[in-house]
Amino acid sequence: MINATTYTARAHTNIALIKYWGKKDEDLILPMNSSLSLTLDHFYTETSVTFDEKLSDDLFFLDNQKQDVSNVSTFLDIVRKKANIQSKAQVYSTNYVPSTAGLASSASAYAALALAASKAAGLELDKPSLSRLARRGSGSACRSIYGGLVEWQAGFDDETSFAYPIKMPNNFEICMIALIISTNHKKISSRMGMKRVVETSPYYSNWVESSKKDLLAIKKALAENDFKTFGEISEENAMKMHALNMSAHPHFSYLEPDSIKAMKIVEGLRLQGISCYYTLDAGPNVKVICLKKDVSSIVNIFSNSFGHEKVLVASSGPAAHLI
Ligand code: ADP
Ligand code: DP6
Ligand code: CO
């Protein structure tokens, strides 16, 4: 089939409240535990894909710079196999999120690539199939196919491991304030970090058990419109993930001194009666979970300590879509 039509997709990043941290199948990207996230309006990736039989190799440009194409090609091979085509592709992508800094660029990246590449290859995938495809690029990407609150059911094989949306309680106007502590590329990618933890942390099996309980408890808190418990579980789950990293061999941590400083500020705000909680992914940047009514007071305090340009306010974002 000759298909030189270009498709462009936009997908938003998501930040996990119950984290995915460890694979039981590294090739298929099947996680050890189910996870739950919030898709964010403020951060996203736009990706255009054109399959062109005149190309002799895949090409990948990120933010107007030519990149090593190997990871993207491996992903495109999965799409080509499903669509039964051989053509190489041009991929142009722009991140409206810092890359490789613990702000989930791989989630928005592979959700956008899955949507644009599957359409450009002539596939019409339903949402569960699109989520499964995005998962093959980066696990967290399977959740960015949907907007709002999203659960990734771990499943046990390729067919059963995908994400779906979870109902947002009516009175929950959740916001996430991102404090940008560093946009340097992390030294240990999420992929390497979680692999080392699975292989060496003596606490890994406890993590799997405890995150299963956290997921049940956070869904109960959502069903009961209980923001306080929702926030507390999110914060604790994130700290358990970071504790795993410190217990790995060789041990490592994504936290920077300013991460700790920000976490202490959040704990102080709670003592003043403001309901806010922190989470951090595989990077030093702190995300503060709060309700819309408290955003301006929290932003003020963070701006005073870190500078207002470091403080970005996000709320619930949309599903991946073609543009
Ligand atoms: P992050 O915290 O940003 O998700 P990860 O370590 O999970 O960091 O993933 C970073 C990987 O995602 C890198 O290999 C990077 O090249 C890739 N990536 C980031 N943005 C894009 C994009 N727009 N298209 C394709 N790959 C991307
Ligand atoms: C800490 O999805 O980036 O953000 O599947 O290896 O590409 P790969 O990893 P990735 O890991 C995300 C880890 C996390 C937690 C989460 O998003 O659930
Ligand atoms: Co990532």
UniProtKB/TrEMBL annotation:
Keyword annotations: ATP-binding, Lipid biosynthesis, Lipid metabolism, Lyase, Nucleotide-binding
Enzyme class: lyase
Transmembrane region(s): none
All residue ranges annotated as the Mvd1 C-terminal domain in the record: 177-310
InterPro entries, per the entry: GHMP_kinase_C_sf, Mev_decarb, Mev_diP_decarb, MVD-like_N, Mvd1_C, Ribosomal_Su5_D2-typ_SF, Ribsml_uS5_D2-typ_fold_subgr
GO molecular function: ATP binding; diphosphomevalonate decarboxylase activity
Domain Diphosphomevalonate decarboxylase-like N-terminal, chain residue ranges per copy: 11-163
Gene Ontology process terms (BP): isopentenyl diphosphate biosynthetic process, mevalonate pathway
GO CC terms: cytosol
Nucleotide-binding in keyword set: yes
EC code: 4.1.1.33
Domain of life: Bacteria
Similarity comment: Belongs to the diphosphomevalonate decarboxylase family.
Protein name: diphosphomevalonate decarboxylase
Organism the protein comes from: Liquorilactobacillus cacaonum DSM 21116
